[in-house]
Amino acid sequence: MTEAGMAATTVSTTCRLTTLIKASTNGEVFRQKVFLTNASDVQYNVASMKPDWRECPRGDVKGQWAAFYVTMNPQGHVVMSRITYERLGEPKAFTLLFDKVNNRIGLKPTHAQDRNAYPVSPTGRYGGKLVRAYRLMQEFGISLPETIRFHNAEVDNDGILILDLRTARVSSRAKARRKETNKFSNGVPHAVLRLATQP
Length: 199
Fold this sequence. Notes:
By secondary structure, the chain is an alpha+beta fold.
């Protein structure tokens, strides 16, 4: 008897291989490969198990502009999500701080008229905000080869946004741009270079 015949009888000679998940009488789940044509061609007797439905929550996984999200690029542009900005009280400016001992950057909300205040600018389509902190990088010798994301960004009890350089990682967008850049050589696609160098 063929493998298909062990589970059912088909009425067509044109079959495709598939895998069925069946439950035995003792509750054990196993997989069985059978040959199928159409669903109407085959009938199976599968023991039912007690359902265990789980509700899928909505809103727990959020996009970068709807979650606590902060990045910094080699030009010193600190970009934060709308939610992050709102948790900071939506200030018009920040005082930039640096913890040299722990290698952390701090953004302290302040008024735009205060001394050493760095203004906040809008960025993106989803309410993100931008703070230009290149002076901070120059002042404290911070060098970034690529855009980084601060995965452990947090607001302390004093309302300061803490950005830890020790736990920051290259952002997913920067990785994607790097992958795309690797397809080029001196700004020219490799395929074009190959064509140009052919005799």
